[in-house]
Amino acid sequence: MEGSYIGIIGETTRQYLRRFPTAPTLQIAKILKEEHPLLYTDVEQARATVRYYRGAHGKQNRKDLADAEFVRSTEEAMECKYNPFSLPDSVRDNWSPVALPIKAGRGLILADPHIPYHDVEAVTTALQWAQREGYTDFVVLNGDTSDFFMLSVFDKDPEARKFVDELDDTNAYLDSLEKALPGALIILKDGNHDWRYTSYLRRRAPALLGTEKYVREATLKLKERGVIEVPHDVPIKVGKLNILHGHELHGTSTVVNPARGAYLKSMECVLVAHHHRTSEHSETSLSGRLDTSWSVGCLCQLHPEYARLNKWNHGFAGIEVDGDDFNIENKRIVKGMVR
User: Fold this and answer.
1) Which spans in the chain are helix H?
2) CB neighbour burial string for 145-175, b if at least 16 within 10 angstroms, e if fewer
């Protein structure tokens, strides 16, 4: 299976090298990652693969190339190089949106359960709505799936749930999703609470950075489940729609209408969570282009100890995808009923 996977990557890379023979390596790598998010872990992996087939990994790799047609002379490579003025190398942060690997279908967007502080009735109501209405092709978990309470920088109750218990409950949550929506593709986007894990290691145990992915894999079985992971600061693209958790758009936490705040920050069609409130906002440009933004409600308890009084509401969203077109059903949950 692994050999077949590597073979698919190799053949895909060759196809794009034939299509863009003179394009810079990094540009091809970005295209590969954007158009084949399931094949390439990140842009750097795609770039390394392109460099391999172009013979840019040294003499030994140049000799071992399966297809020498992509090997470029030093002069040719320099002519195609992005940096014609020999500027010093910069510290590169490979950041790019992830395209939803669904060309057509109906799915569910769930956000902010803050496990283990989720609301069982609210989650159940959302899943039953998806079953009833046929939004069962995929599920986007749009951030703060886990709360990671004990890893927070804020004051913590020493009697609260342990970190390992939260991982176990998150695993059980994924089990429940697969039971309710069998066969649905799961896209797991991290939010600011999920990011607490890595942030904690950065502050308290930098020597252990990088091990968090192995711990999550061992407990949540993400690869076994076929889950697509999206980092906490990376948007999900669905045609012209951008799906963000919401913490990425700094300065929108206190706005009256979270959807409008998200639009003013992004100036594009965007769907966010994070604020735990259901809202919608539309604006028409001078040229007649209509942009709409949404914020979805949460699936956690509405009156936790740290925020007894708030404006939160339970909710979720359904999304229908048809190529670059999409339609959003932004739903509230009131007393166990979908509104």
Assistant:
1) 2-19, 25-35, 43-53, 59-64, 74-80, 120-133, 163-180, 196-204, 212-220, 222-225, 258-266
2) bbbbbbbeeeeeeeebbebeebbbbbbebbe
Cβ burial of 262 (10 Å; 0-12, 13-18, 19+) is: buried
Determine if the peptide bond prior to 116 is cis (ω within 30°). yes
CB atoms within 10 A of CB 143: 29
d(CA 194, CA 149): 10
DSSP-derived letter for residue 308 is S
Which residues, including other chains, have CB under 8 Å from residue 151's CB and lie 6 or more apart?
163, 196, 197, 199, 200
**Rounded distance, CA 144 to CA 190, Å?**
6
What letter does residue 161 receive in the DSSP assignment? P
Examine the pLDDT at 246 and tell me if it is beyond 60: yes
Contacts (Cβ under 8 Å, ≥6 apart) of 18: none
CB 101 within 8 A of CB 278: no
Distance, in Å, from the CA atom of 56 to the CA atom of 52, rounded to the nearest integer, reads: 6
Tokens for 244, please give them: 């963000």
Which residues, 6 or more positions from 193, have their beta carbon under 8 angstroms from its beta carbon?
A: 114, 143, 144, 146, 147, 148
For 188-215, how does the pLDDT look when each residue is reduced to its tens digit (9 = 90+)? 999 999 999 999 999 999 999 999 999 9
Q: Give pLDDT tens digits for 94-103.
A: 778 999 988 8
* pTM (predicted TM-score): 0.76
With CA atoms as reference, report the closest residue to 294 among 309, 308, 277.
277
Three-class SS state of 18 = helix
Nearest to 317 by CA among 277, 284, 281, 290: 277
